[in-house]
């Protein structure tokens, strides 16, 4: 069959059928990316509601009950709907191109793993309109607030989590199968681009911990509907058990979010330094070390729960250790730039900001790992600031860098560099105005997930809200830039968009043809 | 190109370096606080010290790393004619930047351990206080003294919803503060009644989760009398932001006087349980209790929230036999948000609120519930 993909010219039925039944890795990558961007805007809208309410002390716009639904849905949608699918989308597009494979190893499962996601999020979002409201127990959904005391809609929340988990597991199996079986001749493991490496390791993490999350929500389901008492102290269960199970999933989860981001940055920095990545093999080992450590540090989220001192000490030491491989990565990126020939196009700007702000978040992470100090930081805005530095300035910045970096390859059009840089600066400045003051708020004693606060916190909350609105605006600019590029961008047909770019994805024409590498390329 | 790169460099630098400085200037003018408080106990001091050590270690490393990075961004730009070299490995430096951070961490582990041991040093207290988190208030019980009371937010809804100007102590005031003496080692035993809460007083450096079915211990000893304000730090439902902690530390003589008064109050109260209350008295008191303890869920008009909290108005329990109504309050409804009020409310208050519920908003059962009925039910179990 030599015909290309259906376009609108073939009629809308054929066009819709193309997207619904597609097994093409590029189509599915595109679907993932657009879906995750839609979720990013939805989660962002929730965040805007939160920051608008917190603009001043007192309850002005919404009720505390709805505020809790907003913080919960913001977290869930951003983590499971925006960041994770965005990187799966990048994996779908780029991994076959990077390893010289014609497609993913399991294309039909690929279609399925995407198409169940919109249903999961439709179910999750619909809970907001149910009697009793949506999930209001935080994205960490600690029992018994999420079981005995939860609104009825919690059953739909559990169902949605199960679907998301199934989707992630299928996506990961696909990535692992693809990388193990479909590399071009000559593409040995230690020659794979770092983005591929970080994704393989992430995929293993996902396969290991998504079932644990499924177990946690299933136990909740049993407690709520079938009279068990896993997490109910009155029936002989233990609410703390929930936290152990959740964080055994939850800590690896934060690395699931950040490792592919490391991969993206490790592609971009060498390109704009015109110099190979420094310390390739130590990057691979550091990634593996971080992944391993992520399984043995979970209780650092539970320092105040009353663990015995021995447990507390162990989790403190283990957490401190994560700083070592993380540091290795940062040093490698900077040394890659050293004695390079640097230019600062938009993807590079986002990557440099990533290195700086992620490192800043790593510093606060190190502070949080010190259990005695964490007794003061825990569950305050200091923690909120920490994880937004690593997840927003980390994962989201790197995702944005990836969009600018590969957009010309995806659609054969060049974005407008000035617009890209303007968007970068608005995002960078907005981000810091929004989240830097949250460190001060936390240290001064403002707890997280508060719908209202004392007058002493008023100034910094207002500053933070203003920054958040600016940062929100920057995302609309990103959307505009992408659409403007697709519609009116300057056409580019060069295989190699960027002077310093290396790798198989830069050996195919732009835009990348619907089918690539039907014959495996020779990789030296 | 050169111009743009320089502008980039300067703006990056100014943001990272100047933002905190600009921040502190802003803070001084508006009297908000930027750093962790040193507090008034050994534990809070230990937390502060280790916090400052970490800040300085991170600052020194950060200045070195970012300084080098900015230098590279300035010196090795293509626009300045930099030509890329091709090296991509160096075993020596790679080992160095693995080993040196490891050593730094090992060194930092020592003060971190000492500080943590201090937090856990809860043995041999002079006074023990049991703290129970409720949705959405705290209960303090002086173990062995027979003194026990609830501490709830005093700020009015009118202030919260902007119908009245906010007072100076907005969300930092409670009906009855926890009172402690100076110079005594106090052990807090923290637990939860319904969901998980967390009891935090920054100036004591004590933050302990209040988990149902579990006791977590913390301790404090201070020489500085004063009022210390804290918060609930574990999401516990809609009232999470509205259950502050207020502690008053008093000189010992003052504390003893306060404690003697509280004990006398308890004795006096015991004598009112047997008394026969008039229906009007119960009605008035019951309305007060209802608004304070029940209306949060069942609403002031008794209508509840459909699908979440059942209505009391017209409910079969409120219109049914008295004993069933008492049972709901004393035993709670297992598996639901309706908790037992047996430990939260006195017999008098429970009797009053039951009387109110059975005779308000058109519920007109017409019977009278006396404290002694409640006590009898409790004792029959
Ligand atoms: C040097 C590396 C890091 C260290 C040592 C570290 C340490 C910690 C610690 C100790 C906490 C618990 C704080 C508390 O609740 O009191 C925490 C919270 C958190 N960290 Fe990190 N972290 C690091 C990097 C990261 C990364 C890379 C991510 C994700 C991209 C991340 C995401 C989070 C999140 C989401 C939370 C809060 C979870 C919640 O309670 O909602 N951290 N971190
Ligand atoms: Cu963690």
Describe what you observe in this structure.
The complex is a heterodimer of chains A (about 525) and B (about 375). Chain A has a two-stranded antiparallel ribbon with strand order 1-2. Chain A is globular. Chain A has one domain: Cytochrome c oxidase-like, subunit I domain (Cytochrome C Oxidase, Chain A, Up-down Bundle). Chain A has 16 helices and two strands. Chain A is an all-alpha fold and about 525 residues long. Chain B has about 375 residues and is α+β, with helices and mostly antiparallel strands. In chain B, the strands form two sheets. Chain B has a five-stranded mixed β-sheet. In chain B, a hairpin with a 4-residue loop joins β2 and β3. In chain B, α2 packs antiparallel against α3. Chain B is elongated, with a radius of gyration of 29 Å. The N terminus of chain B is likely disordered. Classes of the chains: A mainly alpha (about 525), B alpha+beta (about 375). The interface between A and B is large, with 110 and 116 residues. Chain A: It catalyses: 4 Fe(II)-[cytochrome c] + O2 + 8 H(+)(in) = 4 Fe(III)-[cytochrome c] + 2 H2O + 4 H(+)(out).
List keywords for this structure.
heterodimer, A: 524 residues, mainly alpha, Cytochrome C Oxidase, Chain A, two-stranded antiparallel ribbon, 16 helices, 2 strands, 1% strand, globular, B: 381 residues, alpha+beta, Helix Hairpins, Immunoglobulin-like, Cytochrome Bc1 Complex, Chain D, domain 2, 3 domains, 5-stranded mixed beta sheet, 10 strands, elongated, disordered N terminus, binds protoporphyrin IX containing FE, binds copper (II) ion, translocase (chain B), transmembrane helix (chain B), electron transport (chain B), metal-binding (chain B)
């Amino acid at each position: 069959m030599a015909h290309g993909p259906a376009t609108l010219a073939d009629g809308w039925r054929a066009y819709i059928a193309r997207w619904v039944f597609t097994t093409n890795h590029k189509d599915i990558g595109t679907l993932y990316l657009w879906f995750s961007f839609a979720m990013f805007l939805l989660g962002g809208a929730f965040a805007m509601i939160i920051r608008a309410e917190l603009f001043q002390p007192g309850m002005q716009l919404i009720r505390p009950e709805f505020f809790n639904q907003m913080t919960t849905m913001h977290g869930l949608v951003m983590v499971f709907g925006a960041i994770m699918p965005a990187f799966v989308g990048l994996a779908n597009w780029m991994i076959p191109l990077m390893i010289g494979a014609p497609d993913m190893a399991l294309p039909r499962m690929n279609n399925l793993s995407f198409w169940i996601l919109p249903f999961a999020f439709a179910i999750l979002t619909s809970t907001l309109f149910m009697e009793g409201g949506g999930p209001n127990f935080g994205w960490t959904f600690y029992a018994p607030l999420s079981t005995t005391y939860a609104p009825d809609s919690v059953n739909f929340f559990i169902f949605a989590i199960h679907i998301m988990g199934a989707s992630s597991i299928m996506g990961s199996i696909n990535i692992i199968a693809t990388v193990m079986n479909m590399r071009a001749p000559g593409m040995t493991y230690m020659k794979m681009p770092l983005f591929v490496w970080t994704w393989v390791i992430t995929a293993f993490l996902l396969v290991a911990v998504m079932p644990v999350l499924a177990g946690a929500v299933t136990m909740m389901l049993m407690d709520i509907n079938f009279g068990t008492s896993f997490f109910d102290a009155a029936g002989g269960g233990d609410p703390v058990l929930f936290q152990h199970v959740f964080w055994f999933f939850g800590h690896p989860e934060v690395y699931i979010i950040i490792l592919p981001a490391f991969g993206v940055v490790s592609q971009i920095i060498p390109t704009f330094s015109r110099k190979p990545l420094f310390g390739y093999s130590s990057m691979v080992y550091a990634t593996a070390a971080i992944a391993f450590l992520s399984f043995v540090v979970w209780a650092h989220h539970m320092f105040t729960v009353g663990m015995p001192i021995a447990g507390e000490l162990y989790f403190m030491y283990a957490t401190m250790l994560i700083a070592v491989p993380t540091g290795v990565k940062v040093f490698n990126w900077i040394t890659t730039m050293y004695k390079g020939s640097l230019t600062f196009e938009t993807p590079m700007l986002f990557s440099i900001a990533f290195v700086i702000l992620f490192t800043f978040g790593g510093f606060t992470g190190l502070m949080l790992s010190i259990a005695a100090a964490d007794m003061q930081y825990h569950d305050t805005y200091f923690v909120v600031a920490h994880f937004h530095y690593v997840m927003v300035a980390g994962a989201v910045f790197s995702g944005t860098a990836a969009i600018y970096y590969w957009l010309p390859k995806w659609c054969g059009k060049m974005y407008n560099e000035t617009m890209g840089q303007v968007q970068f600066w608005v995002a960078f400045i907005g981000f810091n105005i929004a989240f830097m003051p949250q460190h001060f708020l936390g240290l001064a004693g403002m707890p997280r997930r508060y719908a209202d606060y004392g007058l002493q916190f008023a100034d910094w909350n207002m500053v933070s809200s203003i920054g958040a609105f600016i940062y929100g605006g920057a995302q609309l600019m990103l959307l505009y830039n992408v659409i403007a590029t697709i519609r009116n961008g300057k056409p580019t047909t060069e295989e190699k968009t960027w002077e310093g770019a290396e790798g198989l994805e830069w050996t195919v024409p732009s835009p990348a043809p619907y089918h690539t590498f039907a014959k495996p390329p020779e990789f030296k | 190109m050169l111009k743009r790169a320089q502008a980039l460099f300067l703006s990056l630098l100014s943001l990272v370096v100047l933002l905190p400085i600009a921040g502190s200037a802003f803070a001084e003018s508006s009297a908000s606080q930027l750093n962790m408080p040193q507090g008034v106990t050994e534990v809070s001091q230990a937390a502060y010290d280790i916090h400052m050590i970490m800040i300085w270690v991170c600052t020194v490393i950060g200045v070195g790393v970012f300084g080098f990075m900015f230098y590279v961004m300035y010196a090795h730009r293509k626009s300045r004619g930099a030509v890329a070299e091709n090296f991509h490995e160096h075993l020596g430096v790679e080992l160095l930047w693995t080993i040196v951070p490891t050593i730094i961490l090992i060194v930092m582990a020592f003060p971190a351990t000492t500080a943590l041991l201090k937090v856990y040093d809860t043995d041999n207290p002079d006074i023990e206080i049991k703290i129970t988190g409720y949705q959405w208030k705290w209960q303090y019980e002086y173990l062995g003294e027979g003194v026990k009371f609830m501490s709830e937010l005093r700020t009015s809804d009118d202030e919260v919803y902007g119908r009245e100007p906010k007072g100076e102590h907005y969300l930092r005031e409670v009906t009855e503060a926890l009172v402690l003496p100076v110079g005594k080692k106090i052990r807090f035993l923290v637990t939860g009644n319904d969901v998980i809460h967390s009891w935090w007083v920054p100036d004591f450096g004590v933050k302990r989760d209040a988990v149902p079915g579990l006791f977590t211990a913390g301790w404090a000893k201070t020489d500085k009398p004063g009022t210390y304000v804290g918060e609930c730090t574990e999401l516990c439902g809609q009232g999470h932001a509205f259950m502050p902690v207020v502690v008053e530390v008093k000189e010992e003589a003052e504390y003893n006087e306060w404690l003697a008064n509280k004990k006398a109050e308890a004795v006096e109260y015991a004598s009112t349980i047997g008394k026969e209350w008039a229906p009007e008295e119960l009605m008035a008191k019951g309305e007060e209790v209802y608004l304070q303890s029940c209306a949060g869920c069942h609403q002031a008009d008794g209508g509840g929230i459909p699908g979440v909290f059942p209505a009391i108005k017209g409910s079969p329990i409120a219109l049914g036999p008295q004993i069933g109504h008492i049972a709901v309050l004393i035993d709670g409804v297992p598996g639901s948000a309706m908790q037992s009020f047996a430990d939260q409310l006195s017999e008098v208050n429970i009797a009053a609120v039951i009387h109110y519920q059975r005779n308000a908003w058109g519920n007109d059962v017409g019977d009278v519930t006396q404290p002694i009925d409640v006590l009898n039910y409790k004792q029959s179990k």
